[in-house]
Here is the input.
Amino acid sequence: MTPRFTAPQAAHHRAASRRDSPLPGLPAVPGDAGPQGCQLPRPPRTRPWWGFCAVAVTLFTMMLSATLPTALYATYAHRFGFGPGTLTLIFAAYVAGILAVLVLLGDLADRIGCRAVLLAAVIIAVLGSALFVAAGSVAMLLLARLLHGVAVGLALGAGTSALTRLHPNADRSAAALVSTVANVLGQGCGAMLGGLLGEWFPDPLRYVWVFYLALLITAAYLMWRLPDDTRKTSHWLRLTHVSVPAEIRLLFFANATGGFAMSAVLGLYSSLTPSILHNLLHLGSPALAGTVSFALFSVSALTQVALRSVKTKSAAIGGVAILTTGIITVAAAAALTSLTLLLLGTVIAGMGQGLAFMSLLASTSSAAPDARRAEVVSAFYIAAWLGAALPIIGVGFAAPAIGLLPSIYAFTGLITLLAGIAIIGLLKVGGRAR
Here is the structure.
């Protein structure tokens, strides 16, 4: 890694960014569920939950692709003969796809409708998965991951917006919670599924994606059955306006720094988990690699569900501190070649990630002026997604030069430094995430 990055993994809709409702989950692309946004009609009384459940299943299915190849990266590296640097670039291509959607197509569902965007997302995911099936070069892997990133970026915004609109009781909080669970658990289950199929299938690099294509076809059928809310527009591409008002820049800097660090940890688990297990702990099982990643995302999801009403400054500081403790424990596990310590560090990091993200994002959203909330939250998302990619690329290219273990130490040091900066900033500005 979906760095469901929880990973992401999230309630990531512009409607929430314009109000004070919670925004749990992994960094994602905001959509809109307001009057000018997704206009999906409510389902008939005889099947009040059908459309809502169909979108939830589709969003979960789309998020599987975020981490489906995680446990298989070591196998890809062996087959195509590339090292950690190229591996992290393949992961970064996925992040680049999401960032492209965030910057260019962040409100596309507002302008053409949720159903059309969700269908387009599934079709793009099909193309990316087909490229994985036929992959014969690193270039094809890069393109496949880029397409998956675009597909996930489109699905996150439109999916969350559709869930808000289609909830039979018009309960935005419940819709946001379902979006979070579908997002983060989708990423966790993607890692687990890829690991299990990679362990048992005779040709996992091909048949894992054939299996996923079957799931995507099901998702396409579900989206085809949704009521049509398509609208015509002549402006498909529109730059997302990103800015931060001067009066909240210190708070934003602290929150964005914490979000950058949090996403970097998700990126580590979404890309380099197999390398850490294989090269440092001498455990090459794809199923184990998938299980470790699943543990991080599932603990993050459970933390966000259990503590969704706790979004104070203290929770943000505590989450960042717990996250740092977790990654330090992971570094110690790598040094001591201890699987038990690695699993403990993963659970701690997952708890910290879940608590930190929902508190940092809620703080950012509530501090922003109403008229500029979408701009500020978009800036936070961009910082978080950059965190999911940039440090991991550094680790990937440093590993061949200085070794994987020293690179993990350097990564841990960077996360600790960023966490310290975030905590000091939060202590300076004070305030409460509403």
